[in-house]
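Each field is set out underneath.
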Amino acid sequence: MQNLCVVKGNPTWKAKFLIGCVNTCGRYTTLDYRFTIEGKVGEVSYKTWEKGPDGKNREVLKPFDHPELDNVVCVAYATEKSTGRELVSPPVSIRMAVGEGWYTKDGSKWPTMSQLMLRYRAASYWVSSYAPEMAMGFRTTEEAQDIVDVDYEEVYDSLPAPKPKPTTTSMENAKDKLRNRGSRKTTGDEPANQQPSIDMP
């Protein structure tokens, strides 16, 4: 339970706990990582939120201030012992971290601990892809901390007012109208759709 952290009210697993689960379960070899550099981060915009003139938050794109950074890419991999098949995670890169807003988020560890954060995110993707039963549907702590907070506003006033529930009196009135509808007569002595009766001798 030392590796279960509550982030913004939600339980999460530390990434190193999931890595330990993979390494000790016996179904796979030890989880390992490959790093490559694919050029520079370059011109990339990141998502953030700003308040507009009306005071509402809006998603905006801003250009990244350090396009000269190396675009380091990381994948996690392990071999499934029963089949000998190498299992490789989806790639995670610095460009991705910038574009998703993880790198520029206030208090982010990405600028100062990039390689560790790449490992943790790649391991999380590996577990989600090949052994989701280990995480039991929980995000990792690092993933939850990377989620950008957005202020919200109450919108109850804009919702339509609920319709009043029918009272006993109104329901009885409706029943009376239905009863009386069947006994109504058209103008004249006989109903419009009924032939006059003929007395037989």
In short: The helical segments are 15-24, 94-99, 114-130, 132-135, 141-146, 168-183. The mean pLDDT is 80.
